[in-house]
Write a structure and sequence with these properties.
Strand content of chain A: 15-25%
Number of strands of chain B: 2
Number of helices of chain B: 15
Largest sheet of chain B: 2 strands, antiparallel
Structural class of chain A: alpha/beta
Strand order of the largest sheet of chain A: 6-7-8-3-9-10
Number of domains of chain A: 2
CATH architecture of the largest domain in chain A: 3-Layer(aba) Sandwich
Largest sheet of chain A: 6 strands, mixed
Order of helices and strands of chain B: HHHHHHHEEHHHHHHHH
Number of domains of chain B: 1
Low-confidence stretches of chain A: 1-6
Largest interface: A-B, 38 and 29 residues
Radius of gyration of chain A: 25 Å
Structural class of chain B: mainly alpha
Oligomer: heterodimer
Radius of gyration of chain B: 22 Å
Helix content of chain A: 25-40%
Number of helices of chain A: 18
Low-confidence stretches of chain B: 321-338
CATH class of the largest domain in chain A: Alpha Beta
Mean pLDDT of chain A: 84
Mean pLDDT of chain B: 88
Chain lengths: 500, 338
């Protein structure tokens, strides 16, 4: 199985870690060949991050764990020791220093450890430049990091790992906040690194990317190893099943809603420099997807629909009534709810009770006779939503942070649906959400549609629109370019159109 | 130079405003640009500057210290007691005693902040009250006037008599101030430890993952601030010639305002010694100018307060001349794209 001449960057066996009563990792094994691009896949909370933190010395593993880095057995570990062994990690939040210069960010590890001494800025700059050349990028080394866009900060983080001569680099969700072209550029850099002999362990929720870049994938579920698989011949849905442990629906669910009443009709909507002559309708109970690149005008269109910005021309009709919301409060009152991209993950006050989180959008509806919040009305409302969404909770007074990610998302949706909308706009609802929770979100969305809600799904993940929307519009340059019926097209065809 | 100015816009702007003020006051009064006035400005602000660079180190490391001014009072009282006990002493002993006590008080802050994981503003408000309360309890509010001669004697670095017979001189405290400024600037800009302080203040979690010793960073930042508080306290006695327990109470906010005015970021990771100098001088010259212009002293605090408010609230306003010439719509679409 393991030929002797094969050089391994990392071999781990029996990796276990217990936090209090939770077995975060249970005898997990992982092997990464030198120069390989390897993917570590699993749902949120499956133990991926714990595994990375053990290899990089942030956490101490439990007894019995065996770790070998470049053939050398590791008995005690720390971030500094791991770095000395050639292990680097690029955290999802990058862990960079925004007010320091690019050069210092790249060379920060030269400034840490050892005796206090005079910092050798010249040599740091020269070496940082060398690393930049190796990566084939050029950045102003003296500029403060905060002046760079996120994609370039990603490059700085990679350069930093190379500064310390890393030969095994962990990348935690490196593409989560990148656009498609930035992702492509990043993946090209990863391929360069691999060709250079650097092993890269890649963690991503975007399965298409994983299958594209990695040679093998190690799947972890609930702290246990599921298996190691070559990516060749692996499909996204198969990988998703391995990660979640259950079958993911991967059939087109689009339904024909032409017979239903029109809930939203947008006619000739324009706003200077953002979108032009946009016309479409959404039927009662229909999910309409709008897909397009960042800058295509899709988010700007949503902002106009909910009154965040004014339109120059055109009309919006909601339930046969012309609406012209001047601000978000008016839009909510008319029956439009907008869940923006970060709301599903950040739209909660974590330490606050589930009940309080659910009612924040409708505080005015639960007022009692003297204008104070009525706990009777509040409890009725909360219990109704909890039941309807089958949120698994202990008590409604428990903190939201005690819920799993999927259940938290249900609470967020409940919060918005408590406003009784007729139209629900979801803007990139699954950014940073793992594959299992995604399925959960769309399950809820489908239920909502079945109850008669009109849903506008804005996303730049084409597969998401393809599998979940009843009709898809492609938006580019501020215009709706074409309409697609998922039954009559394919993901490939859509991708060609969108990325063309 | 241009790069330096673009990454330190607050300092650059304050420097420009300060230059305008100096030119304006030189033209408006014939007393501002005199050796006597300028030397007294330096003498009167040397202690504030020593404290300012101490506080800067804490701010850079992402903390805040409210207790340093009363800590300086504690240092003065304890130093006076110890010197009385050993029978006089000298400058070297004075620096050693005052410096160590100041350092010790700073380390108490650091230990509490790190040990109990409580934000520094809460801890240092508590120690501010504790230090001051203990001081008032033990001194019963009485001042000390019998101090060793070496401590209260003026040491002049520079003397000058103008044609009209007015004496101007620079005190020892100015030399100590310059030494503290140079030492702090070297420490935070040029040493690896200093850069770790910036990194820690900028992104504590990132610093922890990079292997920076967090407890050590807190100890160094608050220890340095305490050390400067001690040295500043020692020099303040040399100027005031007495130890008054409540003399320094309230000075912490003046210094804090000046340091923040000079571009130090309350969130950490940003700030320069040069900015501290500008901030302290800005407040000092405003007050000095009002004085020379004959404005009622009762109006000083109001005007200085308003000036600080304007300076701080406009320091984040971007002045970009090029944007005035661009079409409005282009800007809007760019903002939305981000």
């Amino acid at each position: 199985m393991h030929p002797k001449d094969e050089k391994y960057a990392l071999r781990m066996k029996n990796v276990s870690k217990r936090f209090g009563g939770v077995q975060a990792l249970d005898k997990v094994a992982m092997e990464v060949k030198a120069g390989e691009v390897h993917c570590l896949a699993g749902e949120n909370g499956c133990g991926k991050s714990t595994l990375i933190k053990i290899v990089t010395g942030v956490y101490e593993p439990d007894d019995g764990t065996e770790i070998e880095v470049f053939g050398e057995r590791i008995s005690s570990n720390s971030p500094t020791k791991a770095r000395a062994k050639g292990i680097a990690v690029i955290w999802q939040d990058l862990a960079l220093f925004p007010h320091m210069s690019v050069a210092e960010n790249i060379g920060i590890d030269e400034l840490v450890g050892g005796r206090p001494r005079v910092a050798q800025f010249k040599s740091i700059k020269t070496r940082a430049q060398g690393v930049m050349d190796r990566l084939g990028v050029s950045l102003d080394l003296d500029a403060p990091l905060s002046s760079l866009p996120i994609a370039q900060r990603q490059v700085v983080a990679i350069a930093r790992s190379l500064m310390s001569d890393a030969r095994l680099v962990f990348m935690d969700e490196p593409t989560a906040s990148l656009t498609q072209s930035e992702t492509d550029a990043l993946l090209a850099i990863v391929r360069n690194l691999s060709a250079d002999g650097v092993a890269v362990v890649f963690v991503s929720h975007r399965l298409a990317e994983v299958l594209d870049i990695a040679e093998r994938v190690t799947v972890v579920r609930d702290g246990k190893l599921v298996g190691v698989y070559p990516t060749e011949g692996m499909s996204q849905s198969r990988l998703g099943e391995l990660m979640t442990g259950h079958m993911l629906e991967s059939e087109v669910r689009a339904r024909d809603k032409t017979g239903s009443d029109i809930m939203l009709r947008v006619t000739g909507l324009s706003r200077q420099d953002q979108f032009e002559n946009v016309s479409f309708d959404i039927k009662r109970g229909e999910i309409v997807g709008i897909t397009g690149l960042i800058g295509s005008g899709r988010t700007e269109l949503a902002h106009a629909l909910i009154g965040m910005t004014r339109t120059d021309q055109g009309t919006i009709e909601l339930d046969r009534e012309v609406v012209r919301p001047r601000n978000i409060r008016e839009a909510i009152a008319k029956g439009i709810a907008y869940v923006s991209e970060d709301r599903l993950t950040l739209g909660l006050v974590q330490p606050q009770p589930i009940a309080d989180n659910t009612v924040t959008s409708v505080l005015d509806k639960i007022l009692g006779s003297v204008g104070l919040i009525s706990s009777q009305k509040k409890n009725d409302l909360v219990d109704g939503w909890i039941e309807r969404f089958s949120v698994k909770i202990g008590e409604t007074s428990d903190a939201v942070s005690t819920l799993s990610g999927g259940n938290q998302q249900r609470v967020v949706l409940a919060k918005w649906l408590a406003t009784n909308p007729k139209l629900l706009i979801l803007d990139s609802p699954t950014v940073g959400v793992d594959v299992g929770a995604r399925a959960g979100i769309f399950h809820i969305v489908r239920e909502l549609a079945d109850e008669g809600l009109a849903i506008l799904l804005i996303t730049d993940e084409i597969t998401e629109a393809f599998y979940n929307a009843d009709r898809i519009f492609h938006m580019a340059d501020g215009r709706l370019q074409a309409e697609y019926d998922p039954h009559q097209t394919s993901v490939q065809q859509l991708e060609e159109r969108v990325y063309a | 130079m241009r790069k330096l100015l673009s990454s330190h816009t607050v300092e650059a702007r304050l420097f420009a405003v300060l230059l305008l003020m100096v030119v304006g006051l030189s033209l408006a009064t014939d007393t501002f640009l005199t050796v006597a006035n300028l030397t007294s400005l330096l003498n009167n602000n040397s202690v504030n500057l020593i404290w300012a660079v101490g506080l800067l180190v804490v701010l850079v490391a992402g903390g805040i210290d409210i207790s340093f001014a009363v800590a300086a009072s504690v240092v003065q009282y304890l130093t006076a007691q110890i010197l009385g006990y050993v029978g006089g002493g000298n400058w070297v002993l004075g620096f050693l005693i005052a410096g160590s006590i100041g350092l010790g008080l700073g380390l108490i802050n650091a230990a509490l902040i790190h040990g109990f994981k409580i934000v520094s503003i809460v801890i240092t408000i508590a120690t501010f009250n504790a230090f001051f309360g203990l001081l008032m309890f033990f001194t019963k509010g009485r001042s000390i006037y019998t101090l060793p001669d070496w401590w209260v004697d003026r040491i002049f670095l520079f003397e000058y008599q103008s044609a009209s017979g007015v004496w101007s001189e620079l005190h020892l405290s100015v030399a100590v101030m310059v030494a503290c400024l140079v030492a702090t600037a070297f420490f935070i800009n040029r040493t690896t430890t200093g850069r770790q302080l910036y990194a820690f203040g900028d992104n504590p979690e990132g610093a922890r993952r990079a292997g920076i010793n967090i407890a050590l960073m807190q100890a160094i930042a608050f220890g340095w601030c305490g050390l400067m508080a001690g040295i500043g306290g020692l020099m303040q006695v040399n100027i005031a010639k007495e130890v008054v327990p409540n003399a320094l109470y309230g000075r912490e906010l003046d210094v804090l305002a000046a340091v923040v005015l000079g571009g130090a970021r309350l969130g950490g990771g940003k700030g320069t010694v040069f900015g501290c100098v500008l901030g302290v001088l800005f407040v000092a010259i405003t007050q000095n100018g009002l004085n020379l212009l004959g404005v009622s002293p009762f109006a000083f605090q109001m005007i200085i307060g308003a000036t600080i408010l304007v300076a701080i609230s406009t320091s984040n306003v971007k002045i970009d001349l090029s944007s005035w010439f661009k079409p409005k719509s282009g800007q809007q679409s760019r903002r939305v794209d981000q």
